[in-house]
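REVIEWER CHECKLIST
Item 1: Sequence provided? yes
Item 2: Single chain? yes
Item 3: Sequence as submitted:
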Amino acid sequence: MIDENENQNGSPETTTSLEGSAPTKVRKPRGFAAMDPKLVSELAKRGGKAAHRAGTAHQFTSEEARVAGRKGGMATHAKRREKITPDGVAH
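Item 4: Structure as written out by the authors:
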């Protein structure tokens, strides 16, 4: 069964339900997800340039980038490190 309802913004929202299961909502992408990727890229580029002109953009130093990369690697491989026992043998 398919019902056409209007959401708060007045646009149609379709819900599909099967007997015995909860209805699921089919949603349209909103905001940047609904835009052309080239347009999103252009807007981001403009925002970055504006932030640099305003002096509010952050630029990583080599040391900051090194620390951030190390944190990412530690987080990514945390489960792998948990498997290694104190005697140095992986299980």
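Item 5: Key structural point noted by reviewer: Strands lie at 2-6, 12-16, 24-26.
Item 6: Recommendation: ____
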